[in-house]
Amino acid sequence: MVTAVILIWVSANLSWGDGRWSRIVTSDGNGYYAYLPAIFIYHDLQYNFIEQVKDDSINANINKGFVTKINGKYVNKYFIGTSLCLVPFFTLGHITNYINGLPLDGYAVYYRIFAHIGAIFYALMGLFFMIKTLRFYHFSEKVIALAIPAVALGTNMFHYVVSEPMMSHIYSFAFVNLFVYCFLKFFDTQRVKFFLWGVFALAIIALIRPVNILVVFSLPFLAQTSDNLKNGLKHLFVHWKTLGIGALIFLGIVSIQFIIYKLQTGHFIVYSYANEGFNFLTPHPVEFMFSYRKGFFVYTPILFLSLFGFIYLYKDKYRFYTLMVFLALVIYILSSWWLWYYGGSFSQRVMIEYYIYFFILFSLLLQKSRRKKFLTVLTLALIIICQIQTYQYKNGYIHWSEMNKERYWDNFLRIDKIINRAEKEWE
Question: How far apart are CA 427 and CA 424, in angstroms?
Fold first, then answer.
């Protein structure tokens, strides 16, 4: 509850008043959001309507930088999943604008504010299923009470909820956590509803960011034992109707993207990222994790602390190796992207989706360690460090793309320069 209040309060103060709402949809968020006005207001999947709305100073952040031209037709390079998640909130924004006599253009004030509320909703949904997952493992309520604010306030997730809510990662975070919980329960009980909800979550994950279908490789870990994995798979093949229904759910949801492509280009399958792709022969895992430019563990150090949970997992060789191999695979794949630092971003934003796996380790460390007071104090310190670095990033002292060692240490945990700059702006 406290975490929810903090996320809402900070978001409202940063983004919902005095024209600040105009910054809610920006950068890559333009593309993730654009399906909504394109489909429901302008009926224009070539995005020509952008020219109509971008001239307004309020819409200065709106542009067509998200489109790719394929066979003479424009395609949104991003996938429709984020917009699909936001349909209820877009509808609420439309109704509220109508009631208040505001433009029904897809971008006026309440469209964006409700879109931000949608991001908060999915962040809380993800945290809800994280709590259920941690309880499945029988972690104590004290451990869970520390783990939840640690992930919400002590990682870059906080930034992508309160400052860049139209990026896709928070939505993936929610559905990956649903996927994890459902398949933990399925392998434990073999109940059909958990399998079908897990498949539903996987389909939404694929529709938001297809690369995150990598989560299927965590199934051996989620099964907990090799016997559970074999029995679960055997159960599905014996009850082939359940497997068939699951396949229909997955294909039915994922086909939404193919239908959109057909409407845009006349083809069901296109590659919307043009010349961008993976370079699997030249990954950058070390830079991905430890560089000053965007190092995952440099800017989100609480995740490095979580790795010590492997010490207590080692006795269970099956879960130890299945989780380690899975996380290694994720880092290898994601660090193979042609732009391994993912452009303008705080820490490695593409890892937000996988935080549930790290926080299982984090909770195991807190539960098993004899130094609970020390780890609690250290966790609180790392939350403070993350909040300071988030503040620095927002104010430009951690560069959005070209950070280096000198600049990092020159500004390490300093806020005086930021305060001084703020004071000058008020003069």
Answer: 5
Q: Following DSSP, what letter does each residue of 72-102 receive, concatenated?
A: TEEEESS-THHHHHHHHHHHHHHHHHHHTT-
154: Cα separation from own chain's centroid: 15
Q: What is the pLDDT of residue 62?
A: 82
Mean pLDDT for each consecutive 10-residue tract of the chain (427 residues)? 86 84 88 95 92 69 85 91 97 96 92 96 97 97 96 96 95 98 97 97 97 98 96 92 95 96 90 90 96 94 97 96 98 96 92 98 96 95 95 88 90 73 42
Q: How far apart are CA 375 and CA 409, in angstroms?
A: 25
Report how many helices (DSSP H) and strands (DSSP E) the chain contains, helices first: 21, 2
* C-alpha distances out from residue 80 to 50, 61, 206, 208, Å: 17, 20, 10, 6
Contact 209, 160 (CB under 8 A): no
Domain locations in the chain?
2-114, 115-416
Burial (CB count within 10 angstroms: exposed 0-12, middle 13-18, buried 19+), residue 326: buried
Q: 3-state SS of the chain: helix, strand, coil percent to 5?
A: 70, 0, 30
Listed in sequence order, the residues at least 6 apart from 184 whose beta carbon sits closer than 8 Å to its beta carbon are 133, 136, 222, 224
- The per-residue pLDDT for 176 is 98
Owner of token pair 């309060």:
9
User: Which residue(s) pair with 68 in the sheet?
Assistant: 75
**Whole-number Cα distances in Å, 304 to 80, 267, 283, 315:** 33, 44, 20, 20
Q: How many whole angstroms separate alpha carbon 36 and alpha carbon 166? A: 12
Q: What is the pTM of this model?
A: 0.94
